[in-house]
UniProtKB/TrEMBL annotation:
Record flagged with keyword ATP-binding: yes
Annotated ranges, domain ABC transporter: 2-238
Entry keywords, A to Z: ATP-binding, Nucleotide-binding, Transport
Entry protein name: ABC transporter ATP-binding protein
PANTHER family, A to Z: INTERMEMBRANE PHOSPHOLIPID TRANSPORT SYSTEM ATP-BINDING PROTEIN MLAF, PROTEIN TRIGALACTOSYLDIACYLGLYCEROL 3, CHLOROPLASTIC
GO molecular function per UniProt: ATP binding; ATP hydrolysis activity
Organism placement in taxonomy: Bacteria, Pseudomonadati, Bacteroidota, Chitinophagia, Chitinophagales
Matching Pfam families: ABC_tran
InterPro entries: AAA+_ATPase, ABC_transporter-like_ATP-bd, ABC_transporter-like_CS, P-loop_NTPase
Organism: Niastella yeongjuensis
PROSITE patterns linked: ABC_TRANSPORTER_1, ABC_TRANSPORTER_2
Length: 270
């Protein structure tokens, strides 16, 4: 369980996070949305311990991460998988070596055991015959899948994903979203995703946190977001492609019918 309690973080004069409190839902996809510069990345970096908040607590199982000793921090870190923007694979390492990297760092397993695990997770993300390839030889979507394989290789309890769809076409984005959602449910992971992508919000957003100027402005589910009455959130979502879907949903509510052939079942599924 991840509980964020009133965290504040600034750089010099600039306050970036201004008292954020939220509980990430266990075994669900928790999405952080908000305009560029609203503090999403700083928030995520604070949660994984890459940044130390000026005030407040980031609690894993009710213990403040920043008050743990090094050994205890290492234990939590081992339970955290991360998928960075752009996948952040090591260019000079093969796919197999990239995915094996966390196992080399955190385990003393034999090579054979590590290789077995690497192949298991590559299979899970539906990648075959890529062990010997280098990242430069892969498509953007394949790189993301390698990144996901690496993020789950240690069987994490927590998965942090920064902008999973950046640089991907809509079709590939959907595949990656689906994979993140499936893995979250299958392995009972608490997943936190930073995203700009409103399609992701509808597809995988079990719990959505809307950030505005360093504060949590709204939180709710992907069904609640459609009919929300928060002005700032509506301004944000109406500036995106989501507008069309949200308008359709409202019309459906008001008139009982929609004026185009969009797949409402798909939009409503949760
Ligand atoms: N290390 C740093 N030093 C100084 N300022 C920083 C630092 N990291 C982030 N900031 C500032 O904090 C603010 C929030 O940045 P952050 O990257 O969290 O935004 P974001 O919501 O993730 O934006 P985007 O969607 O564009 O990635 C920005 O104004 C940024 O310039």
């Amino acid at each position: 369980m991840i509980e964020v309690k009133n965290i504040k973080k600034g750089f010099g004069e600039r306050t970036v996070l201004n008292g954020v409190s939220v509980t990430m839902q266990a075994g669900k996809c928790n999405l952080i949305i908000g305009a560029s510069g609203s503090g999403k990345t700083v928030f995520m970096k604070s949660m994984v311990g890459l940044l130390v908040p000026d005030e407040g607590e980031i609690c894993y199982n009710e213990k403040d991460f920043n008050k743990l000793n090094n050994e205890e921090k290492k234990e939590i870190r081992q339970q955290i998988g991360m998928l960075f923007q752009g996948s952040a694979l090591f260019d000079s390492l093969t796919v197999e070596q990239n995915v094996m990297f966390p196992l080399n760092m955190f385990t003393k397993d034999t090579y054979a055991k590590k290789l077995k695990r690497v192949n298991e997770v590559l299979e899970r993300v539906k990648l075959k015959d890529v062990n010997r390839k280098f990242p430069a030889e892969l498509s953007g979507g394949m790189k993301k899948r390698v990144g996901i394989a690496r993020a789950i290789v240690l069987n994490p309890k927590y998965l942090f994903v920064d902008e999973p769809n950046s640089g991907l076409d809509p079709q590939t984005s959907l595949v990656i979203d689906k994979l993140v959602k499936e893995i979250t449910t299958e392995y009972d992971i608490t997943t936190v995703v930073n995203t700009h992508d409103m399609n992701s919000v509808m597809e995988i957003g079990d719990h959505i946190i809307f950030m505005f100027q360093g504060k949590k402005e709204w939180e709710g589910s992907n069904k609640e977001i459609i009919f929300n009455k928060n002005e700032r959130l509506n301004e944000f979502i109406f500036a995106s492609d989501f507008l069309k879907d949200a308008k359709d949903m409202r019309m459906l509510e008001q008139t009982g019918k929609i004026n185009n052939d969009r797949d409402m079942d798909k939009l409503l599924k949760g």
